[in-house]
Design a protein that fits this description.
mainly alpha, elongated
Length: 122
């Protein structure tokens, strides 16, 4: 795989992750029916707004190459918390698992040093 193809793949994966988090954060910040439904399970509208701001902030951190690894770790931790909330609430988790996998694949492709540390042989 040449450098140009790898660069395209890493930015497409990064864009997908960013799209998911920006979309989710925007829905939470805009209010409406979807946000009101989330507010019932998440302890009120102020919590939903805070989560929306957090998602947008994580995307900004993830998109900058210098802070991208920290953004990836924050997104991964956030998705872990979302999985816990869905597990306790008896809600389906397959979409969250797919997003978590997408975060890690995008991170390992975008930051090869992360993959080297995660999959290093002893």
């Amino acid at each position: 795989m040449n450098s140009k193809t790898k660069n395209i793949i890493q930015w497409v994966l990064t864009g997908l992750v960013a799209f998911v988090f920006i979309g989710s954060g925007t829905v939470k910040l805009m209010g409406g029916e979807a946000a009101a439904e989330m507010a019932k399970n998440l302890g009120g509208m102020s919590n939903v707004t805070a989560l929306g701001l957090l998602e947008i902030t994580m995307v900004a951190i993830f998109l900058f190459p210098r802070t991208g690894v920290v953004g990836a770790l924050l997104m991964s931790a956030y998705m872990g918390g979302a999985m816990a909330v869905h597990l306790v609430g008896g809600q389906p988790m397959i979409a969250l698992i797919i997003i978590q996998i997408l975060i890690w694949v995008a991170s390992v492709v975008r930051f090869p040093e992360l993959g080297q540390r995660l999959f290093a042989r002893a």
